[in-house]
Design a protein that fits this description.
It is a single chain. The chain is an alpha/beta fold and 485 residues long. The protein folds into two domains: 217 residues, no CATH class; 257 residues, Nitrilase/N-carbamoyl-D-aminoacid amidohydrolase, CATH 3.60.110.10. Helix content is 44%, strand content 15%. The protein contains 15 helices and 14 strands. The strands form three sheets. It has a six-stranded mixed beta sheet. A six-stranded mixed beta sheet has the order 7-8-9-10-11-12, with helices on one face. Helix 4 packs antiparallel against helix 5. It is globular and about 75 Å long. The two termini are 34 Å apart.
Amino acid sequence: MAGGLLPLSFAPFQLYALAPVLLAGLFFLCDGQQPREAAWRGFWFGFGAFAAGTYWLYISIHVFGGAPLWVAVLLMLGLVWLMGMYVAVCGYLVATLSAGPAALRWCFIWPACWVFIEWLRSWLFSGLPWLSIGYGQIDGPLRAWAPAGGVFAVSLVTVMVGGVLLTLLRGAAMDRKIAAAVTVLIIASTWLIHDRDWTTATDQDLRVRLIQGSISQDRKWLIEQRQPTLDLYSELTFAPGDTQFSPDLTVWPEAAVPAIAHRVQDFLDDVAERARSRDMQIFLGILTYDSDTEQISNSLISVGEQSGAYHKRHLVPFGEFFPVPAFVRNWMRLSGMPSQDTASGERFQEPLRVADIRLAPSICYEDVFGAEQLDFLPAAGLLVNVSNDAWFGDSIAPHQHLQMARMRALEAGRSMLRATNTGITAIISPRGKIVDQSPQFETHVLNGVVQPRVGATPYVRVGNYPVLITCLAFIGLGIYLLRRN
């Protein structure tokens, strides 16, 4: 039950204060238990959290992916089971490292175990950072730690608050004094870095237009829908008589063009020519084909005065690549389910450009991996993400995804332009606030003005290393106390 309530601390519910309370409850449930029992309790906490927080996976797998319902449920439960195992490991650790004063365990050692496992979950087996505690704090005061140390720094401070709550309620007199000192330290340090400008805006104004075509996923790839889709995006981009706002950059969503690039080359050439005639740069999502490797990539290409392309680097397991044996792949193909792997782009790629402004691109759920955007920073002055959250229907997933995109803008100290197929398209400020957004499931054009920024936040300079070193130091303290005991 405690785990099942955890998603309420994330979007769209935004009850961010609930997270440290529930984590304090988890620590209380594990305190004094044998490691095996604590692992089971951690597992069920994680199982409940991800069953409630990622239930929408079956929508993308079954409703839009074409897999039988039993396959979709099996895959979803398999992922939930794996996520529960991470929390089980955390429960085992906190029960093992149970020596020493309660205040040290609950306020330092156990939060370090949680965040270290959370970081591990973000990259192991391709990674799934979804429901990392820090994301839920994007509208709370602890968000101030994001540009200083990234989302895991936010997670660490949040879980420490949970440890403080438990200590104040259950600790001895000396433990409560330590918890009070930790509280003062958290409040003072958070106040010092709250809403600090780590980066500086340039004097350039970039007029942007984000296109939300709102093509339903079940019709997007139908042959008869292709031309209407191309006409729609052209009309929204080059609206006749639109003289009040002339964009420098227009962004179309992920795979906005429902075809492989070389099959619609005439259309792309026409769009590029019309863009040049209006001094406009267009970023558009499309699939590209490499004739040398005979592989397809999920790409964001730039047309207009300048040309360029970014190829998605971090692919979705069972969505863009299938880590299964050949006989399973053959069964998937015969059943009409997707089974062809997409090629992964090179790690180091050139940022996309609008005149002399560089933009850090990401496609779909790449924006949930904070460390990967650092490859483009601090050179890039803006972030741009294209996505297609139509895969998740009218669920909580698009709201959670937007919340994570906001965290990326806050970490980098840069505006983010986020164009999606069915929503939620948004312009996000360098402080992670939504400047403007499109209504979900409606065809909409979002116009705005942003300023590129220069400089680097501490997180951009050093990444996750300080948080990881801190976590390992606290875990090392726990091991030392255990051995001494």
